[in-house]
């Protein structure tokens, strides 16, 4: 995404495009795509949506709508077009030729944000692997200039297959090397986990949709200084700290993990397996939900899909409905602790405000109850059994 490089000081004006195929989670306002664009250092200057029964094989949106995009981009001064859905390499190439502007999709936008935000050696390796896997499918559009190369004594050259194959081998080698380095990181994490297991540590992982407030909650619970901001993907690297629970007179291991998002690229799920392993190996998941977001049920469903994909769907959960302070008075719950059905199962739900601290005492006591139950080998299969003192 050359025009959206993190090193660029100028903000890139972009045109946002969404196509409604009749799916329930279609974002008619393109709000999330706009937030992603802003997080990557771009400025949405126009938005357009359309309805289709199926994607057009060549241009995804059809030639008529592509003409409209080109006119709209010129009118608003956009220098790049962003699609809310994933584009095939051929569709992306054809759109760029038709619109005469760089065209990118949601997948590359997320990869770009991850590349900007990764801080640890492991996080950078994981992003590098995901981007290499993505680029490897799109080599044909990068070498179109070779189709008219000339060689020899006035002889006309071929369409650049040799250069493409060379580049493909180079990327394949880079993918192999990156995977080997990630294997070493996984071994190190595995050693650390075994050490925690030998110390009989109870492991809790924070999971949830991006920008649900996981890092703010993590900081509030363990008095840490992990980076937290009101933006998408503020945290990419897993941070683990010890949390002392006074009611249980014991400590637990608490980990803050990367946030999930709708249509998370499969390459990222694979590449971030080492980071997400913290969730897979947890004894308890704190599923943090942005209670102030009206689309929280769909966001919860997306998180559950990713948990299923990484093999963490059977781990016991407590639902933590965060941002209680952002709820209008008419939407505030009458009690801070109740139950909520997820996938046919009743789970314990606690309302908290990580920012103001409201409800955190209830959460600590709930964690103590689960820790004591686990220590006595009496963990219930369904909803959390909370202390009688809680409402």
Automatic annotation (TrEMBL):
Family statement drawn from the similarity comment of this UniProt entry: Belongs to the TRAFAC class OBG-HflX-like GTPase superfamily. HflX GTPase family.
The keyword Metal-binding is annotated on this UniProt entry: yes
Residue intervals of the Hflx-type G domain: 202-375
NCBIfam families: GTP_HflX
Keyword GTP-binding part of the UniProt annotation: yes
UniProtKB keywords: Cytoplasm, GTP-binding, Magnesium, Metal-binding, Nucleotide-binding
InterPro entries in UniProt: G_HFLX_dom (IPR030394), GTP-bd (IPR006073), GTP-bd_M (IPR032305), GTPase_HflX (IPR016496), GTPase_HflX_N (IPR025121), GTPase_HflX_N_sf (IPR042108), P-loop_NTPase (IPR027417)
Quaternary structure, from the entry: Monomer. Associates with the 50S ribosomal subunit.
Entries under CDD domains matching the protein: HflX (cd01878)
Function field: GTPase that associates with the 50S ribosomal subunit and may have a role during protein synthesis or ribosome biogenesis.
Name of this chain's protein: GTPase HflX
UniProt subcellular location: Cytoplasm
Major subcellular site: cytoplasm
């Amino acid at each position: 995404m050359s025009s959206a490089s993190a090193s660029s000081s100028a903000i890139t004006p972009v045109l946002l495009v969404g196509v409604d195929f009749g799916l329930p989670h279609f974002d008619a306002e393109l709000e999330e795509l706009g937030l992603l664009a802003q997080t990557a250092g771009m400025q949405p200057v126009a938005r357009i949506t359309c309805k289709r029964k199926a994607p057009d094989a060549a241009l995804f949106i059809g030639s008529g709508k592509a003409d409209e995009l080109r006119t709209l981009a010129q009118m608003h001064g956009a220098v790049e077009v962003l699609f809310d859905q994933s584009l095939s390499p051929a569709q992306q190439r054809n759109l760029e030729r038709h619109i005469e502007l760089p065209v990118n999709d949601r997948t590359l936008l997320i990869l770009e944000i991850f590349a900007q935000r990764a801080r640890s050696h492991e996080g950078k390796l994981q992003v590098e692997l995901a981007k290499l896997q993505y680029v490897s499918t799109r080599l044909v559009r990068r070498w179109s200039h070779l189709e008219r190369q000339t060689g020899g004594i006035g002889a006309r050259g071929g369409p650049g297959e040799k250069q493409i194959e060379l580049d493909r081998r180079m990327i394949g080698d880079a993918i192999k090397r990156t995977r080997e380095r990630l294997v070493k990181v996984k071994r190190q994490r595995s050693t650390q986990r075994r050490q925690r297991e030998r110390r009989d540590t109870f492991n809790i992982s924070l999971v949830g949709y991006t920008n649900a407030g996981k890092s703010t909650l993590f900081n509030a619970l363990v008095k840490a200084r992990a980076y937290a901001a009101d933006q998408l993907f503020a945290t990419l690297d897993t941070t683990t700290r010890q949390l002392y629970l006074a009611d249980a007179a014991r400590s637990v291991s608490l980990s803050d993990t990367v946030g999930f998002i709708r249509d998370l690229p499969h390459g990222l799920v694979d590449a971030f397996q080492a980071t997400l392993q913290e969730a897979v190996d947890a004894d308890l998941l704190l599923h943090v939900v942005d209670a102030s977001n009206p689309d929280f049920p769909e966001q919860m469903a997306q998180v559950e899909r990713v948990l299923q994909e990484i093999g963490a769907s059977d781990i016991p959960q407590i639902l933590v409905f965060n941002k209680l302070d952002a709820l209008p008075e008419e939407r505030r719950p009458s009690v801070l602790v109740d139950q909520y059905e997820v996938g046919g199962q009743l789970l314990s739900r606690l309302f908290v405000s990580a920012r103001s601290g409201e409800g955190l005492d209830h959460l600590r006591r709930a964690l103590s109850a689960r820790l004591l139950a686990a220590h006595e080998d009496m963990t219930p299969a369904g909803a959390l059994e909370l202390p009688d003192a809680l409402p």
